[in-house]
Amino acid sequence: MSRTTLLDHEVGQAMSALSAAAKKGLGDPALAELVVIRASQLNHCAFCLDMHLAIARRHGVSERQLDLLAAWEEAEGVFDERERAALALTEAVTVLTDRFVPDAVYEGAAQHFDDVRLAHLIGLVVAINNWNRVMVSRRIPPGGYTP
Amino acid sequence: MTTTSDDGSAAATRAVEYAQEHTPRLRWTEHAPEVFKAMLRLDAAARKGLDAKLLELVKIRASQLNRCALCVDMHSKDALAGGESVQRIIQLSAWEESGHFYTERELAALALTEAVTVLTDGFVPDAVYERAAKHFAEAELAQLIAAIAVINAWNRFGVTCRLVPGHYEPGQYT
Fold it and tell me: Over chain B, what is the mean pLDDT?
């Protein structure tokens, strides 16, 4: 049985607005893509991975970072402290049903991001989780995105 | 506090001392007002065409799974204000074993809610999707998926920012 491809127009528009607002407030397009790709890996969203790997390359994210993103914790030299703090927060906010967002993870992010940037970083993780859910639930195949 | 009654026996009538209320980590809506605005817009768009009572059950169940205290507070109160029974709200955390309190349609929606919420554990199984598709027309099912995603979004803000439950009044944001 094939799944629906329907997405209400207003829902899609609002989701785009949410992502755009979060990304703008974070003010770091390359970091935003790392965050979005990592969440999409955790949620197994093929469509989102395909789309955001293309966007990340366009923003100049290195192949080395993209190759090692799934194992960023063990790739210290490849991601700086700020990126690592953002990725740790991304994982905690994404894998929510296993535990709360630990204080150490939250405080680690708060050391590198002021309140405004942090609120937008959280918003970005929320926004991509939203896309991941909508795409995975409908089994939207990868490849539909063209830059 | 200990008081002595007329017959001289000491009766402990200790005042209940609850743990202290925590403070939120971050008041995200103040720091990211445009993000908040987009969330409100998304919430309104995703609830279109869905039954309000069903939507509250879905929202409570997702909030339980994500352990969002503020969201559980808000949506339980909204459900009660909307005429939902205490019984059905209490049984939600064990809905698979309390099927007779819910319609087949509600049960299908709750199964879908769990699968879409616990996404990092696996994909949304075909059986769960197909069960929902039997009870919801295609456009309605698309809205249900969107609504489940949206409560997950609110849950993530609530949990990450440690928003405090207990102060919500039904209808506060409408």
Answer: 92
A99 domain residue, yes or no = yes
- Please give the residue that has the higher pLDDT: either B135 or B6: B135
For the entire predicted model, the pTM comes to 0.93
- Residue B11 pLDDT: 52
Residue A105: closest CA among chain B residues belongs to which residue?
A: B160
Nearest-CB residue to B120 (from A3, A94, A120): A94
Q: Is residue A40 part of a domain?
A: yes
CATH for A56:
1.20.1290.10
| Distance in angstroms (rounded) separating the CA atoms of residues B114 and B96 | 11
Say which CATH architecture domain B28-160 belongs to.
Answer: Up-down Bundle (1.20)
Q: What residue in B sits closest to A123 (Cα-Cα)?
A: B35
| Domain encompassing residue A72 | 9-137
A10 burial level (CB within 10 Å; 0-12, 13-18, 19+): middle
Cα angle vertex B74, ends B76, B16, to 5°?
80
